[in-house]
Amino acid sequence: MAFEKVKKKLAKTMKKILEEYNILYYDEAILVMFDPYSISEDPDKTYWLCKNVTVRFYPDGNVIAEKIGVSEYITKQQAETLHSEMGIPLIYTQYTDLYDTKLEADLNRKQLTEIPLEIEVEGAIIGYNQSPLEALIIASIEKFGRGKATLDQTINYLTMPPPDGGGWYHATPQLRRKVEQKLQQLTAKGVLEYNPETLEYTLIAKPTTSKIEKR
User: Fold this and answer.
1) Residues 128 and 202 in one domain
2) Residue whose C-alpha is closest to residue 32's, from 47, 54, 20, 22
3) Buried b (16+ CB within 10 A) or exposed e, 3-25
4) CB 108 within 8 A of CB 169
5) Domain co-membership, 123 together with 197
6) Number of domains composing the chain
7) Which pTM was predicted?
8) Residue 171 φ/ψ, nearest 5 degrees
9) In this structure, are 6 and 89 located in the same domain?
């Protein structure tokens, strides 16, 4: 019992320290990434069941695997089953939650855009086990839309440079599709409320969050 208490306390302390550096550690997680073993210029999107995983979150929504202890290739169906039935975290790295191919991700990649201090936003708010895109949608509606926005306005906030938006992404058909899906999911979760007359999504709740600050 004493060993278990020390183990839990150590894990809690480690998690707190890691979060201060925009890093999270998982005993076990499913990572989605472009095939690291492929020799193709445009490798396929692959799923890996990993142990002892350390991932770093960036303000532009990207997620990078800093360290992986053991990894095992699994299919997309297996990944979705393990995530839904066993609650194993499903983490999209290398913009795989936004782009379907690595070539598309590379072509749309751009440098980080710092947000001016007068907007009073130092970075994004990433919730525990929350997708970066979902977090940036919530942050953009709250900060730039003052709590409400339509689909088109949300996309503008995500793609326009400061002070009108965060400048995190390029506007693409894939981005519009992903944002629309996320808005519907957030509405179903009770985070947003949709008004069919004005087509606006209003922020009515916020998930548990941890702040990612500029360095």
Assistant:
1) yes
2) 47
3) eeeeeeeeeeeeeeebbeebbbb
4) yes
5) yes
6) 2
7) 0.45
8) -75, 120
9) yes
> What element of type H or E holds 71?
strand 63-74
Angle (CA) 206-208-213 rounded to 5° is: 95
Among 85, 108, 131, the domain boundary falls at 108
Per-residue pLDDT of the chain (215 residues; tens, 9 = 90+): 566 776 677 667 766 666 667 788 888 999 999 988 888 878 889 999 999 988 888 877 788 888 888 889 999 999 999 999 999 999 999 888 888 888 777 777 655 555 443 333 335 555 545 577 888 888 889 888 889 999 999 999 998 888 888 888 888 888 899 999 999 989 988 889 999 999 999 998 765 444 434 33
As given in the structure block, the two tokens for residue 166 are 């965060």
Question: Is residue 158 classed exposed, middle or buried when 0-12, 13-18 and 19+ CB atoms within 10 A define those classes?
Answer: buried
- Please indicate, yes or no, whether residues 122 and 98 belong to a single structural domain of this protein: no
